[in-house]
């Protein structure tokens, strides 16, 4: 039989007193999916009943309960709720009352089998408030600062607390290398190396362990903060030891004590000094939003007289984590990915039954910690780096989409970032560091300019944009260039927030070819202007007719 996720049932002093845990095993006679009519799980050895799922016909299914008192397993049956079905003695009488009673019991006792099969083979009738995303954040409109933090804390802080053993099992699902089929994926992805490692190496010296992004020594005392899944990720044992309890931040540019990578087994774009630690670019936003969640969830109250967790630029052991300014920047530059959103959804639905609000609403971060953001983010002009060419739409399936950037060789590419903006939402949908060799290919042109080319899917408009951002001045973001196509936009987040884009006044269509592009050329007066190239796109090279 195919096994599904473990779904512990909390104890209750009455009918639930003997049920400490439940492992669910389910398989139907046909395609493995349970759906259609309601069915009832009845436990012949207890007075309790649960309405747990749907089935098109009596499935071949077993639920195994290990009782604390008996210490043995009992096989129970799933029976469909149909009038012609002959239930065992007493069950038919109960069935007339059970529909109303069960819903209330499940809600009050928390005894529903909530963590059904991740890939949908078993779907629970039980739902949680966190699954209604719009309703979950209802009433927060117009709030900011401390008021928003208090309301968010009330929303997310109440959740199911896991044991340390349950955390191991949960991470194997939440961080599986194949998120589309996490139960059958044999590996997990490590947070600091981004490598896939076997689930069987959990807790082994040559394997991976449970990394607290917000370290224990900064105020985590016991459950629930110590086992909160929003704060836990798989990490290589050796790399985790190197990180220790360093707070998050970036090395000072001139520092000669910065390690890149932060550990010989870490991803190449990690870095660390004696106090700070920077994860891979790909997950910096993930880390920032995890810490923001911790500051909100445990910032007002922590059970057991634990300290109230806070974020600041002056981290203090056992209380304040940081660096806040860096985390705010990472939140903007690395928006939530599909994988991060899926993880958040599964924490809600399968395990803790709460959400990380900063994944659903990254803009909450600035509303809480920087209500009036400094306009140091205002754009400034530079002839040292610019967006030179791009291709975003063509007939049929989009092909060869790219963005090309020209930069003076003297510029530190690790301090330049390209942000892609969605015109419909005004938010960043992709961020790329020019210094990331996995994102950009680099070519040189006669030693005068370096050409950075990223082949990346681009939104097809209207009003989509791209911003080139410099972090050269004390890591404070400055917008060098903010372009758009098919109209202008004024973003609601990221470094270009509140800045109106400059439309290139040209566009591609579904009739464009895969080797078309929009790019800069020079006029007779020497001024650059945007032009359309038909079949002559030159990613990685100067544009046709361009004099540098």
TrEMBL record:
GO terms for molecular function: hydrolase activity; nuclease activity. Keywords: Hydrolase, Nuclease. SUPFAM superfamilies: His-Me finger endonucleases. PANTHER family: ENDONUCLEASE-1. This is Uncharacterized protein.
């Amino acid at each position: 039989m195919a096994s599904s996720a473990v779904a512990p049932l909390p104890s209750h002093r009455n009918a639930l007193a003997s049920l400490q845990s439940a492992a669910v095993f389910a398989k139907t006679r046909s395609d493995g999916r349970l759906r259609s009519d309601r069915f009832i799980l009845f436990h012949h050895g207890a007075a309790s009943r649960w309405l747990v799922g749907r089935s098109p016909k009596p499935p071949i299914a077993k639920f195994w309960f290990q009782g604390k008192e008996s210490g043995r397993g009992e096989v129970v049956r799933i029976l469909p709720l149909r009038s012609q079905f002959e239930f065992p003695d007493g069950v038919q009488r109960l069935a007339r009352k059970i529909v109303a009673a069960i819903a209330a019991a499940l809600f009050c006792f928390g005894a529903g089998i909530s963590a059904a099969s991740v890939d949908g083979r078993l779907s629970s009738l039980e739902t949680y408030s966190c699954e209604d995303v719009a309703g979950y954040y209802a009433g927060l409109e117009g709030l900011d600062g401390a008021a928003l933090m208090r309301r968010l804390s009330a929303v997310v802080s109440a959740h199911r607390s896991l044991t340390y053993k349950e955390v191991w099992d949960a991470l194997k699902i939440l961080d599986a290398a194949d998120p589309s089929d996490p139960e059958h994926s044999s590996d997990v992805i490590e947070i600091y190396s981004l490598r896939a490692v076997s689930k069987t190496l959990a807790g082994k010296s040559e394997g991976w362990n449970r990394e607290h992004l917000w370290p224990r020594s900064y105020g985590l005392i016991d459950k629930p903060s110590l086992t909160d899944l929003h704060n836990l990720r798989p990490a290589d044992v050796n790399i985790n030891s190197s990180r220790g309890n360093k707070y998050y931040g970036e090395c000072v540019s001139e520092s000669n004590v910065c390690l890149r990578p932060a550990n010989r087994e870490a991803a190449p774009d990690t870095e660390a000094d004696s106090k700070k630690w920077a994860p891979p670019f790909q997950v910096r936003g993930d880390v920032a939003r995890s810490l923001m969640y911790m500051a909100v969830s445990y910032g007002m109250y922590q059970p057991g007289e634990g300290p109230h967790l806070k974020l600041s630029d002056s981290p203090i052991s056992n209380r304040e984590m940081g660096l806040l300014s860096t985390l705010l920047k990472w939140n903007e530059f690395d928006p939530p990915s599909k994988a991060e959103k899926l993880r958040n959804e599964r924490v809600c639905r399968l395990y803790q039954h709460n959400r990380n609000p900063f994944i659903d609403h990254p803009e909450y971060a600035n509303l809480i910690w920087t209500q009036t953001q400094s306009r140091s983010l205002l754009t400034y002009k530079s002839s040292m780096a610019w967006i030179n060419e791009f291709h975003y739409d063509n007939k049929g399936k989009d092909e060869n989409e790219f963005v090309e950037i020209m930069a003076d060789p003297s510029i530190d590419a690790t301090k330049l970032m390209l942000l892609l903006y969605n015109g419909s939402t005004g938010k960043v949908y992709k961020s790329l560091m020019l210094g990331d060799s996995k994102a950009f290919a680099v070519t040189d042109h006669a030693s005068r300019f370096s050409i950075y080319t990223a082949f990346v899917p681009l939104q097809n408009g209207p009003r989509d944009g791209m911003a080139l951002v410099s972090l050269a001045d004390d890591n404070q973001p400055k917008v060098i260039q903010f372009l758009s196509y098919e109209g202008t936009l004024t973003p609601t987040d990221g470094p270009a927030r509140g800045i109106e884009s400059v439309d290139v006044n040209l566009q591609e269509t579904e009739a464009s070819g895969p080797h078309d592009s929009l790019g800069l050329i020079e006029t007779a007066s020497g001024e650059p202007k945007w032009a359309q190239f038909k079949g002559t796109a030159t990613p990685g090279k100067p544009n046709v007719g361009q004099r540098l």
